[in-house]
Amino acid sequence: MTPQTREEVPPPATIEAAALHRLFDALHARGYTIVGPTARDGAIVVAELDTADELSYGIGVDTEAGRYRLRDRDDRAAFGHSAGPQSWKSVLHPARAPLWSADRSPDGTVVVREPAEEQHRYALLGVRPCDLAAIAVLDRVLIGGRHPDPVYAGRRDGNLIIAVECTEPGATCFCTSMGTGPHADSGFDLAMTELLDDEGHRFLVRAGTAAGAEVLAELPRRPADEATLTLATSAVADAATRMGRSMPTRGLPDLLTDSRESPHWDDVASRCLTCGNCTMVCPTCFCTTTEDVTDLTGDHAERWRRWDSCFDLDFSYLHGGSVRSSGQARYRQWITHKLGTWHDQFGSSGCVGCGRCIAWCPTGIDITQEVAALSLLRLAAESEGGKDDR
Fold first, then answer.
1. Which residue of 82, 160, 323, 380 is surrounded by the most CB atoms within 10 Å?
2. What is the pLDDT of residues 56-115, one digit of tens each?
3. DSSP H helical segments within the chain, as ranges?
4. Last residue of some domain: 215, 240, 265?
5. Alpha-carbon span 153 to 92, nearest angstrom
6. What's the pTM?
């Protein structure tokens, strides 16, 4: 992967919304495939974009536990929505990827072929700060060790990341609790803050790398004045106070370890469908499995890698059966790993506070509420223990 560097970068600049077309031109001229948010099939999805006209102008999002709906905005904001069901994981760590194919010739010779190398250089446009943090997590997991994942490494190499700071969080967002937003601190080539007021529709743009500065230099821009800088800072700071959820993070790994036998897992299991939606929409869940397919003749075979989920019964299958056969055990495994043992493996939480798992759970299970319930149960147990000691 090409490392991002904090080289000498220009001061922040202001560009008009119309300059987004010039941004697309500059990225295309450099050979980038642009991927960004667009409205499709009733949701904000991540897709390849040809022009700036495909961005989600004037579209907002209403979310709640188990609920996600698009709505019309009163303005022409291009990024006036919270996270959709897809994250940038769908681009960098695709749901299905070919590993090899094999063909048997009439004389019985078998020829094995590896898939062609990726030819795309991706410009990721509209990456929220929580998803910047998620990409950093995937970097540590998939290419930060001794055995980098070749599919992820190929798609991650040479990316240009254009972040958009969050000024309108959703009802299921809690990035402030996780320290991942709404301000973009690092991990980007360009960071934009969208502003709409009596002065017009514009963006404050900051370059984070030399590559980002080169792109910014090609756009019609003007130096950001103090009023614009203050307005952008205030808009992001205000968003931090309007998160729809919060996560009690202090002592969270210990809480989950101590709650292994909590009766609350039975309550969660009574609501959980073990459908795996939470793992599919999570921007950091990375587990995969392999599947082999053949044609009807048996002369052609393929091996594919696809996303897997710890909610699948076969995920923990060993000789004789599955280790985690109950929904209770599988949900406990997911949340304990995400919020607890991830720290032991990778040095951070596996949750970035995007709220996708809450919105896209069919039964509205809320990870923040489950943690709060476990905290209350532990406090009650400690209080009872104190009474017994007396």
1. 82
2. 999 999 999 999 999 999 999 999 999 999 999 999 999 999 999 999 998 989 999 999
3. 20-29, 89-92, 129-143, 150-156, 175-178, 210-217, 226-240, 252-258, 264-271, 277-281, 327-336, 342-346, 356-359, 367-389
4. 240
5. 8
6. 0.92
